[in-house]
Amino acid sequence: QAAPRVLAKDAVARCGIVLAEEAGPVERHAADELARYLGQVSGARVTIQTTPQSDAFPIYLGTLDSRIPLSAAITARAALVAPQGFLLAVGDDGARILGRQPIGVLYGVYHLLKTTAGLRWFAPGAEFEYCPQTTTLTIADQLTVSNPSFRYRTTGFVCCNWNSKTLDTWDWLVRN
Fold first, then answer.
1. DSSP structure class, residue 162
2. Residue 62 pLDDT exceeds 60
3. DSSP string, 100-160
4. pTM
5. Cα–Cα distance for residue pair 41/150, rounded to 1 Å
6. Could you tell me the pLDDT band of residue 29, with boundaries at 50, 70 and 90?
């Protein structure tokens, strides 16, 4: 078994997020959330770029049809990803969070933050976040496919303001 991949050590980033220039708003939001929370947990400043840095462990974000380099094993597992599911692959050449749809990428980012960093969101708003602090953050090698248990993910807004401008609420819904 390989040693865990270091994302941050002694509050210094050892990884970088790689996002395609043509990435849409959901993928960009996923990259922003990943960079923000990895920084909040470790104290490191994680950057977002369009090409991997030679001295940083790359975390690629994108849909399955993007131009992210894939191994044969990743390609084989990618066939199992449902419309709102995601694939999390971590190995020698970096980490990949891939979704069939952009929302799957965002779900994959939140999965990584929950399982690797221990983050939890109990209610909308920063005061209801559980964000453990550690100066060293690692992730284990894996090839994980996660698909939703239900065909549709939606929220019924009965007796509430469905068009609220409260972004905390909308982010909280997606995070959970």
1. T
2. yes
3. SSHHHHHHHHHHHHHHHH--EE-SSSGGGEE----S-EEE--EEEEE--SSS------SSS
4. 0.91
5. 31
6. very high
